[in-house]
Amino acid sequence: MKLHPASRALRGKITAPGDKSISHRSVILGALAKGVTEVSGFLYGADCLATIDCFRKLGVRIEDARRKTDGRQVLQIEGKGIFALDTPFGELNCGNSGTTARLLSGILAAQAFTSIVTGDASLCKRPMKRIMEPLSQMGAVIESVNGNDCCPLRIHGTRLHALDYRMPVASAQVKSAVLLASLYADAASTVHEALPSRDHTELMLRAFGADIRVSEEPEISPLAKKIVLAPGALLRAQKVHVPADISSAAFLIAAALLVPGSEVYLKEVGINPTRAGLLHVLRAFGADVEMTNITNAAEPYADFNVKSSKLVCPEGRLVIEGEIIPTLIDELPVIAVLAAFAEGETVIKNAGELRVKESDRIALLVRNLREMGAEAEETPDGMIIRGGKPLHGAQIKTHGDHRIAMGFAVAALAAEGDTVLDDDACIAVSYPDFFKDLALLS
């Protein structure tokens, strides 16, 4: 796809797609609950559709409906209960979705059948040992078919035991796999987090009726938490409202900040504190982003009013590291793009997780930024970007990574000359209407 610099300011009101993490979990817990769960705001992206497909193969009836009152699309999930999933016919294909593969594995480990979890070529290169180890400690029987600790995984369902587990790194997917497996354990399980990762699973488990308790562990660290889940509680169907995904909204925010004269109003963006690190970075850059209509629901959300801004690193240097990293890990690609336009030096540390996402995002971000004329360099766990120089169009390598593609589509709007993405179809994973929404704003 060839992209041109923006010829006019971006203006208007828009709603970004539903939160991907919450959408995944609404299907998973809706399938395990008794009754019909209704989900509004669901993200119909490729990753979440893969989760739907897997649970349909496990015998769960999932269909779209429309409310007669306002015409909104609502996903309906007829839950089967945690012990009533059907033996799947064939493999459970998770596509490109690591969330689907990892969370689903925690559930399949306790079923009365054997299953195979697989995905596309990219997913089958992503590390699964991080879930295999704690689940195996619970008694799960999981083997990597190719012996490389990646998908395909063959999972032989068995009885699971309680686990007291200390998270080696902050990972919502690993934590969620253990918590979902704990629904089937023979006693209460405990997960200890030294640094918080996104807590959508805990919030939704509580809403569906699970016996889950979260407390602080100040003796470990100021941010440490202990999560205890006891099996046996009946999960009951719920009505779930999915706010707009801050990870998707981030690209629209960045576009509005970089294109002169822009003012964009984003509606109902999720501001869960475990996901809100982006907001702290935007404030540090001096971005003009105002939050209004803050709604303190189980998953809080707010409207954002974003105006084009001159971005500047405070005192010439901004370091993004430590405890904030898990709260903005998916937004780092677009933060790196913003850093290339911001005056001063931006240093990103403790983000080694970026190397095992859909691509090696550190290497790709630095390579593509350099292609556009930015001064950037890799470090083992992050990057250094010296911003403020004008960027120019370039040939962008995405490696099929949706966040790389969207990040450099935004950069293209504020660069000189045309930019070419080698793959724009990958954006459908999380934001199928991305270019349509940009066109509406312009």
What does this 3D model show about the protein?
With about 450 residues, this protein is α/β, with parallel strands linked by helices. The protein has two domains: about 1-15 and about 245-440, Enolpyruvate transferase domain (UDP-n-acetylglucosamine1-carboxyvinyl-transferase, Chain, Alpha-beta prism); about 20-240, UDP-n-acetylglucosamine1-carboxyvinyl-transferase, Chain (Alpha-beta prism), CATH 3.65.10.10. The chain contains twelve helices and 23 strands. It has helices at about 20-30, 45-55, 100-110, 130-135, 170-180, 200-205, 245-260, 275-285, 330-340, 360-370, 400-415, 435-440, and strands at about 1-5, 10-15, 35-40, 60-65, 75-80, 90-95, 115-120, 140-145, 155, 165, 190-195, 210-215, 225-230, 240, 265-270, 290-295, 300-305, 310-320, 345-350, 375-380, 380-385, 395, 420. The chain has a four-stranded mixed sheet with strand order 2-15-17-16. The protein has a four-stranded mixed sheet with strand order 4-5-3-14. A four-stranded mixed sheet has the order 6-7-9-8. α1 (about 20-30) packs parallel to α2 and α3 packs parallel to α5. It is globular. The model has no long low-confidence stretch (mean pLDDT about 95).
Domain tally: 2
**And the CATH topology of the largest domain?**
UDP-n-acetylglucosamine1-carboxyvinyl-transferase, Chain
Q: What is the count of DSSP helices, taking H or I runs of 4+ residues?
A: 12
Largest sheet, spatial ordering of strands = 2-15-17-16
Task: Look at the structure and name the CATH superfamily of the largest domain.
Answer: Enolpyruvate transferase domain
Note poorly predicted spans.
none
In which range does the helix fraction lie?
25-40%
Question: How far apart lie the N and C ends?
Answer: 18 Å
The biggest beta sheet, please? 4 strands, mixed
Radius of gyration: 21 Å
Tell me, rounded to a whole number, the average pLDDT. Answer: 96
Strand content: 25-35%
Q: Label the overall shape.
A: globular
Structural class: alpha/beta
Which CATH C-level class of the largest domain is it? Alpha Beta
Beta strand count: 23
CATH architecture of the largest domain: Alpha-beta prism
